[in-house]
Amino acid sequence: MTPVALLLALALLSVGAFWIGKSRSLALVGGYRGVRNLHSLPNHYGAMTAMWCALPALAVIALWMIFQDAIILRLITGHLPEGVRSLPANELSLVLNDVRNLVAENVPASQVSPAVQAAANEYIQLRGISRMALTVLVMVMAIATILVVRGRITPELRARNRVEQVIEWVLIGCSTIAVFTTIGIVASVAFEAFRFFQHVNPFDFLFGTSWSPQMAIRADQVGSSGSFGAVPLFAGTALISFIAMVIAVPIGLYSAIYLAEYAHPRFRTWAKPLLEVLAGVPTVVYGFFAALTIGPALRGWGEAIGLDVASESALAAGFVMGIMIIPFVSSLADDMITAVPQSLRDGAYALGATRSETIKQVVLRAALPGIVGGVLLAVSRAIGETMIVVMAAGLAANLTANPLEAVTTVTVQIVTLLVGDQEFDSPKTLAAFALGLVLFIVTLALNVLALHIVRKYREQYE
Predict the structure, then answer these.
(1) Residues β-bridged to residue 228
(2) I want to staple 252 with a disulfide (CB 3.0 to 4.6 A). Which of 9, 119, 329, 422 is the partner?
């Protein structure tokens, strides 16, 4: 039985186990009329039975699938011809890789040696035996656990507590996976970044003004050791993010004020979802829009008034990125504004304030911490954007504050450095991890600052 079919059969058995456990609990108290005599609801007894049926079997399936391939490969390696078994480890791994490809039908049998064909046939045979053994083991375990749990169901059994305990452990496991995944990502990036700083001085990286990571072939070439001053990247990232926030913050904030305070409820019902549709547009679509529409339009308008505007400019990328971030700012600001109690507005009206005065003096001041936190989160979103900058701002690492020139950002350079076949022991490739570490630290600091502002200045209303 294939793994998918086995999981489907286990799911059907778990459904049956649920009904067996539920029916058993009801039978012990004479049906639904005696439910009060049960410690837990009948569904809890059914859920407990289903969990005992599914969870041990899933654990066995997971462990079996993890070790199955390694065990089978070890067995078929022992049956290979002596000349193949005695090959170096790297060459033997290539032979075993050919076996895997032949089993997966990625290569025709005519392109491999007879020894590989025989090994592939043995692999298929052993895999069939393994799947049959796994199927028998899982089915026996599932049925046995159903019978054992059914026999131990009593009216006094605390089924609800056991079910909730299992759910609690599952939630703890999920949160633990998330935490350790984050730690692993940070550790991997930091490790590679430290390897980079063994080749390049951190001071030169953080404060250097020349970025040219291409390593020369000959020692007499200019920049043969590479130039890794990241200030142009930081400046380009800051410039494009600033332009984006200049576009996104006023429009997003004013649209949120209108939708929350002025718009008719029927209009708000339609306008807010339509505005948030912009958040669902893929960033590559915004990149096409910036490269094919906004960029040429800005260049044409610049030429009409005598300005030299690059075909790929920071202004085009920042403008389109600002449009992309508008729903983000608007949604967060709208949530903060609508969270202000109506009693504050009524109090301001009772004192003679107009609607605009109430919004400026009462509502916005009460919602300001949340709005500022949302803006900082939007800045983090702008700093991490890649596709729009790749397609609209270019790859030139220019140290300039002129929004009409081409610039690049940290994320774009990370993509550029990791494209193609790269050796992960050269400063050129390791520079991507150093940039990623800096980007992580900056965005983390912005997120922490946003949370601090919201928590420190948040008003508590009853």
Answers:
(1) 211
(2) 329
